[in-house]
Amino acid sequence: MKKHLLPLFAILLSANMYAQQDFFALVGKDTPNIVFNDFRAMDIATVTSGEKIFTADSSVKVFSQARNGVLTENKNSYDHSQATMMATLAYDSSNNNLVYMPMFSSNIYVLNPTTKEVTLVENNVARATSCDVNSHITRMSTGYDGNIYATSNAGNQFLQISKKGTQYVVQDLGIIKDDASNGKNSFTSMQTGFGGDMIADTDNNFYVFSASGNVFKVMTKELKAKFVGKISGIPENYSVNGAAVNSKGKVVIASAKGAPLYEVDIEHLQAKMLPGEQNLHIYDLASKYFANDRATSTNAFAKLDIYPTKVEGQVISVEGNDKILKGNLKLTVFDISGKNVMMQNLTVKEGNVNQQVYLKNLVTGAYLVNITDEAGKVVLNKKILVTK
């Protein structure tokens, strides 16, 4: 029996290590041109590379969703799972998959990082061609609703990729147009708006970080892109190619030109260079985090908060450290119709709250968490999204 313990421990350790990975990079070779090398995990706190999950040289078996079988791909085309020109990556944390698209292709690929299996999602909704730079899908991110979103350079294709049962489904949501206030900073212009990457916020809107360093807020209901500013604190010739939110709520940006990574405050667009690896050629970044995750609170106590706001399990944590906090707090959860669906008391000890709350019997959907003090004064309102 003992001889089986070490391999079993190694398997469990490996699974636990992967479960802690939440930041990923699409990395290229050290060349002037875009040449795909690998998808890898990143320790973004220290900016160091982790496991290479999938490489240009990996032995790969591609399963076709449409044909319900294994597919032999043409490696001499733009339409294959290890294509040279790669620029999009998203982390589907609900299904623990990486989703990506080759730049000159409409194909969508889903990679299971654990089994290394690749599924081809044939995309007949939108078309990308090598001769039309406007049509190239260059930005991709997971939305707060759990779906994957991608957009072309010119915003003339805005795709939603969602999983229905065992199948991924693609929908074209329409054309993203410039907000009337954009002026010369056009979202649809090659010089000011093309390339880069995008991240999502907790209202399921998106921020596109273009290659030029311009930032646009894409409002999904109106399908409008509003220019919000240009990143400051990066070199003048810095090409922004990857963007993803870290666990602190800051946006990490990266370049395909082998430059350092920077951390950007989404509110002020001020960048700060990060230490660690300095010469990574990164074409895209992906994570499970969202912009404005903490800023969406109506919070009377700056040090009182709940997390996560996207609840993949059934537990949230409430943490606070403020001398103003006294006695007991009451946590109430409301559904989107305003109905009270659960209540729980929170204990305060010397101004500290550190308590886990089990969200029993809550179905998938959006909820509002309300916390009040002993006098009934609201000290926190925060939206959460429960997924299962």
UniProtKB/TrEMBL annotation:
Q: What is this protein called?
A: Secretion system C-terminal sorting domain-containing protein
Q: Which PANTHER family match?
A: VIRGINIAMYCIN B LYASE
Keyword Signal in the entry? The reply is yes
Q: Which InterPro entries match?
A: 6-blade_b-propeller_TolB-like, Secre_tail, Vgb
Q: List the Gene3D superfamilies.
A: TolB, C-terminal domain
Cross-referenced SUPFAM superfamilies: NHL repeat (SSF101898)
Q: Which domain of life is it from?
A: Bacteria
Instruction: Please list the residue ranges annotated as the Secretion system C-terminal sorting domain.
Output: 306-384
Q: Which residues form the signal peptide?
A: 1-19
Q: Which UniProt keywords apply?
A: Signal
Entry annotated with the keyword Metal-binding: no
Source organism per UniProt: Chryseobacterium potabilaquae
